[in-house]
Design goal:
Blueprint: H1 2-7, E1 13-19, H2 25-32, E2 36-43, H3 46-56, E3 61-64, E4 78-84, H4 86-93, E5 101-105, H5 109-118, E6 121-131, E7 134-143, H6 150-155, H7 164-179, H8 184-200
Parallel strand pairs: 1-2, 1-4, 2-3, 4-5
Antiparallel strand pairs: 5-7, 6-7
The protein binds S-adenosylmethionine.
């Protein structure tokens, strides 16, 4: 479901890069669907690139290194960075503006939204997918300007679309929070959830 959710945001393109491709599953989906002329599979781990090579053979090009560094001057038309923490994704981007970026941060999605919008991106898709009782944010960004409200930063740009996975996660977060100690931070989080619930009515 998670990789499928990412895959669905990838449109047919010339050069596609998966940064931190691990096993190469997403690259395989892109290749099998004929969605890219060139597929660049990169990872910081040589062992992961070996796994990807075993899966994809000569259908892809391989790069070992930190983030975008091993790509040198190549600017992919579409870049995916998924399955890493928000800070790692921000570190990889280091203020770089890519033409079409799809990310799935495993945490700190609010920080990623705020930082990337501040750095010249516009979020054009922002959804939640569920896989084995876990929830994942998936965003697509392009260069541009955007002003986000606090609710959009915390819950996603399209939180008011009332989508099933989003609503399920909201309910789970609310019931968890009500069992936690009522610190100012937790009280604030609950207040924000209540505001979102008003939008969803
Ligand atoms: C949990 S896996 C996610 C794999 C795949 N992207 C996905 O979403 O299923 C994280 C991968 O990112 C790689 N990785 C972590 N930090 C990286 C970095 N700075 N640059 C490139 N790859 C990185 C890891 O080696 C690992 O293969």
């Amino acid at each position: 479901m998670r990789l499928r959710g990412i895959f669905e945001l990838i449109e047919k393109t010339e050069v596609f890069a998966d940064i931190g491709c691990d096993h190469g599953q997403l690259c395989k989906m892109v290749l099998d669907a004929g969605k890219a002329d060139r597929v660049l599979a990169t990872d910081i781990s040589k062992a992961c690139i070996e796994k990807a090579k075993a899966l994809l053979g000569d259908r892809a090009e391989y790069f070992v290194g930190d983030g975008l560094e091993p790509l040198g001057d190549i600017v992919p038309n579409t870049t995916v960075i998924s399955g890493m923490g928000g800070n790692t994704i921000l570190h990889i981007l280091e203020g770089r503006l890519l033409p079409n970026l799809i990310i799935s941060p495993q945490n700190d999605a609010h920080k990623v939204r705020a930082t990337l919008v501040k750095n010249g991106y516009r979020i054009v898709e922002d959804k939640v997918v569920e896989e084995r009782n876990k929830y994942y944010d998936i965003l697509r960004l392009v260069p541009g300007t955007q002003t986000l409200t606090e609710l959009q930063i915390v819950f996603g740009v399209y939180f008011d679309r009332n989508e099933e996975a989003f609503v399920r996660r909201l309910k789970r977060d609310k019931s968890k929070l009500t069992t936690y100690k009522q610190t100012p931070e937790n009280i604030k989080k609950l207040q924000l959830i209540t505001e979102v619930e008003r939008w969803l009515r």
